[in-house]
Amino acid sequence: MANEVLTHDVVAKEAAAMLIEESVFIKSINRGREQEFDKDKSGYKVGESVRIKIPPVPIVTDGAKYKEAEAFLNAQETSRLLKVDTQKHVSLQFTAAEQALTLTQFKERFLQPAIETLATTIDADLLKRAIVTVNNYSTVGVNEIAPLAPFGRAREMLARSLTPKTGRIALLSSEFSNSIVDTSGTLFNPNAEIAKQYKEGYVGRARGFDFVESEHIYRQVNGKTSGITVSGNGQTGGNLTVEGLSNGDVIKAGQVFTLTGVEMLHPLTRLSYGKLMQFVVLEDVTAGGATATLKIYPEITPDMIGSNKQANANVSATALNGVGLTFVGGDNDVIDQALCYTKDAFSAAFVPKKVLAGCEGYTFNTETMALRIQTGGNWEEDFEGTRVDVMYGFAMVRGNHAARIGRIG
Questions:
Q1: 42 — pLDDT class (breaks 50, 70, 90)
Q2: Are 397 and 348 in contact (CB under 8 A)?
Q3: For the stretch 337-357, what's the b/e string if a residue is b when 16 or more beta carbons lie within 10 angstroms of its beta carbon?
C-alpha cells in the first residue's frame, strides 16, 4: 500500500536522524553554540559567525597591595570565531513516483545510501579540521612494550593542560584499534551508556578514555620538516617567521614541532613543567623563498617580556634566532593517528537554510541536527530534482585539551 504521508518533512526528519547516527565525531563535540545564532532568521548565509569567549587565567598577587596592572591582565579574555563556512548537499530523486513508495522502501533504496555518503563526508571534514589544530602529540615507539602506553602519555598531556577528567574520548581507526585490542583487550572496561551512544563503534574504556572507532580519521601528511630554523629573536603571538627554506617548500597544516628553550608552563602557577611546548602549524604554507611565516597554536606567550608580566602566559621564554624546529616525523611522512579529546575542545554548529522560492521543501532544525530538503522543477527541460543540504561551521576552542597519538611507518 502506498504511503500517503511521504512528504518533505517526514523525509527531513528521517534524514536528520540517520545523519547524526552515522557521524561519530559530530556526536562527541560541543554543539551548544548553535543556540547563539539568531533563531528568528528565515535562513542563514555563509559567513555568519559567533565568537566563543575563553576565560583568562588569573595571576595570583603576593601581599596585601592591590596591583592594577595585574588586575588588567586578569581581564584579558581570548576568543575563537565559529564561522558558518561550509555547505554540502546530496542529490535525490523525490518525485511523484518516489512519493508512492512506503517510507521503508524509500529509505532503503534512496535515503540510506545518500545520507551515509553525506554523513561520512561531513564527519571526515570536521575531524580533519579538528585534528590539525591539536598541538599535544605522542608517537608510538618502535619497540613499545605496552600498547596503551601512548594513551597514558596523552593522558599526561591533557592533565598538564588542566583538561577536565570527565568525558574523555579516544577516537581511532579500526586498524589502530586492532593494534592495541589484540594484546590489551582484557584491559578495557565496558561502559554500557557510551556503548549505546556509539553503537558498534565503541571499543571499551581504558587510561581514562572511552575508545571509539571511526574510519574517518585523518592521517597526517607532512611536508618539509628538516633544516628549518627560527628567523629573528623575541617572536611572540600566533605567527612564527622561519628560514632555511627553498622556493616551493611546503609545510603542512597539522605538523607539530618544538623549540629548544621554550618550555611549557603550568597554566596557574606559571612554573615550568621542564618539558618543551609543542606547537602545531594551523595552515599550509608554501615558501616563496628562504623564509616563511607559520600560523601556529598555541600562541607564544612568555611569562615575562622584559619586566612586564603577560596575560595567559604559557611558555618560559621566546625562541632564540637560529633555533631549529624539531618536527614530529620526517619529510613527507604519512602518519596514522588517534585523537584523544574532550567535548569542549571543539565546537560545531549546524544551522538551517530556508526553502527557496518556487520550491517545495522543509527545514528540520533541532539541537542535534539542522538540514533542508527541497524539490524544484525545470519546466523547460521537464525535470524535477531533490536535494538535502547541510550548512555548518567549526572551531577549535581549546586545542590543548586534546592530544594526538601517531604511528610512523
A1: very low
A2: no
A3: bbbbbbbbbbbbbbbbbebee
Closest by CA position to 34, among listed 54, 55, 49, 14: 49
Q: Is the dihedral of CA 63, 64, 69, 75 positive or negative?
A: positive
241 and 119 share one domain: no
Mark whether 248 and 366 lie in a shared domain: no
pLDDT in tens, 366-399: 777 888 888 887 767 666 778 889 999 999 999 9
Q: What is the pTM of this model?
A: 0.87
pLDDT over 70 (residue 8): yes
Output the domain CATH number for residue 130. Answer: 3.90.1690
222 contacts: CB under 8 Å, gap ≥ 6? 252, 255, 327, 329, 330, 331, 332, 333, 334, 335
Q: How many independent structural domains does the chain possess? A: 2
pLDDT digits (tens, 9 = 90+) for 262-310: 999 999 999 999 999 999 999 999 999 999 999 999 999 999 898 888 8
* 88 and 74 Cβ atoms separated by less than 8 Å: no
Helix then strand count (H, E) for the chain reads 9, 23
CA distance 166 to 208: 8
Which grid coordinates are listed for 400? 590543548
